[in-house]
Amino acid sequence: MSEKLERILPRVQKPARYVGGEYNQIIKNIDQVDVRVAFCFPDTYEIGMSNLGMRILYAVMNRMEGVWCERVFAPWGDMEEELRKNHIPLYALESGDPLADFDMIAFTIGYEMCYTNVLNMLDLGGIPRRSADRNGLEHIVFAGGACTYNPEPLADFVDFFSLGEGEELTEEIVSLYRKAKRESWSKDAFLLAVSKLNGVYVPSFYEHTYNEDGTLKAITPLHGAPTTVTKRIMQNLDEALYPTDIIVPNTEIVHDRSNLEVMRGCIRGCRFCQAGFTYRPVRPRSPELLLRQAIESLENSGCHEITLSSLSTSDYKNLPVLAQQMQDYCTPRKINLSLPSLRADNFSRELMLRLQQVRKSGLTFAPEAGTQRLRDAINKNVTEEEILETCAIAFEGGWNNVKLYFMLGLPTETDEDVLGIAELVYKILKTWREHASNKKRGVRIHVATAYFVPKPFTPFQWEKQITPEEYMRRQKLLKDNMPSKSIEYNWHASDLSRLEAVLARGDRRLCAVLEEVVNRGGKLDGWDEYFSYQTWMDSLAACGVDPDFYTTRGYDLDELLPWSVISDGVSTLFLKKEKERAYRNETTPDCRTKCSGCGASCLLKGGRCDA
Amino acid sequence: MRRMLLEKTGTAIWMSHLDLMRLMQRAFRRAGVVLHHSQGYTPHAYVSMLLPLSVGTESVCEIMEYEIDADIAIEPKDMNAVLPQGVRVLKVYESDRKAKFLTELSASLTMLYDRGVPDGAAQRIGALLNGESLLVEKRTKRGMDETDVRPMIHNTELTVVEDRILLTARISAQNPSLNPALLTTAIERYLPQDKPDFVRYRRLEVYDENGEIFR
User: What global pTM score does this model have?
Assistant: First the structure.
């Protein structure tokens, strides 16, 4: 560690996150390394170290001989200030070497409000932000992650995007880079070659032209770039690398536990949920492998908690077997087994109660909408009966804490639906009165509403976002009609969700806006401490970009969408049909009950989902 | 009581006291040792550090107490194989000396002067620390308070080596405890011209009330 760094550490909060040195971090002999990758997570250490994708790809790249992948995180504001003041460039944790020493700079991006951190981290590393200003083969910047299905707001900064699951593609990319470096290719030659890899999108190879009304007129592929770039998937999750010797942080992180990924994809098809579509098709891991991975992960990390993760763990076919085996392993060793994302069905209910999960965190439901009519329209398959039954059992068992999550501004929502939320809360309160085993302890019901953000690659990708004023009106309507003062009601502020909506469906014209925000000091926008709505509004205005164009305007069904070149396997026709069904309040059965022909199975060899 | 003598150096010094406790609990599990857990709804593993160490301070004499249910022999190498860099187990032993008898410690301060050590600085600092009294601002439960820390300083030794002053001090460890960083605070307050540009802190040894090494 440099003495310069040593001197600033006593002045910053939680310095342990800036020094590396954790158990299981990978150190390689620099003389035997020919490709160095700086794997950047555009948020803090605590968030990034909890990220499953980063854990997997760190292992994928470091498993390659001669390749050394190191971690870089966004510093908190106090550290950034010290780094800048002391002229210390942003560095990787393993070697302590500055970003500029690396061949490739990779980002994994999971949230729109991290975009400014991408630019800021490049700045802190002394790397030019814009692709066009990085001319050589060094400092190739590429990105992937859940948020890069519409990569356009970052098109001017990132050289290429790696779409979908990265276990195989990342290795192909790094191998190609190694060849390019060995043979001293130009950057253009490398980009041309990398654009031929399935799943790689090179934004500079597509020219965007606009109509007078600001909508996209054409996207023209250049240099023989593909007209459609389809995301990559792993055919068989049992064969995908899943590291069980992951880095054990020296300081507390957000999800400080071992993690098992039981499946990818979701059979449910909630119409607002981007992950529910972009992670298709559904592919499980075998329970035998999962149990082995669980034991290895726990033994290698020493964690006292393990979680089964997926988009909807109740839908994992072998959950009863796996949960029992896991419980048998964990209980005598005093290891907590945690199962988030459980549905309110019978088995899950029984399991939750058995694992006594609930006592700690309370029961959590995400009905998303207040009436069955609207839940049908968004295809959220949870019924009032299921919620009330689960609550009744839990209240009888002595639990007294319920959390409920809803969205306001969903397509087709009326005041009746908003009031339906209050109605449902009232029924839960009533259920507690009828079933509570100990009324003296009282009940705590937390209700939270979020402002609906239409996302690309969902049936709602064309929808209008309601105006912030309308959102606040509905929020106030709900607040005024909450049945009891004992209910804690929290709502998201409209500012952040409005900008999320701008960026989620944004086009290349937002690149200039992002740059303006960063120039004005914008960073860590996902954090209340740093998020400044005014900075964003001023930057949008300075660039002549109207946020309403991306939010309340809505997108025409036959409008050319900025992300049209990219495919997640789900057909646009299917999304359109789903949108129509939503407006008819019709549900679509889950993939296991009946295949609705979304198209994602085309990604599988043999063309059949294992829903 | 089962105890371990630990070293915390290098990058590990930036971990907090709680971080180190968590880290040791996990290291035990990695070594295949199940710690004794408290009863109750959220069982806690029993591990405790006798004298919490400030973030940024090195130590070669941390004492940790722990309980295990099964009677198994643990060797330092078993633990060291599963510990991150900077944390090392030096000794595994049993002791019947209660923690309250750990009353003194010896710490070193390496004071760096970027423009060289000012003439006479070591003498002035020596005189300051050995004076009649030494009032410093100390954080207490009631907020900031003026405290005379002179009675907590038992012995000091100063040497000038090139651009640094090495200060070794025997100070009170518990009831009351003196954070060695307060010595720097005192220098800044009373001898601003001798204020070092950076100070490294290291805990060297712990003692009982008779000046014997505590284990």
Answer: 0.95
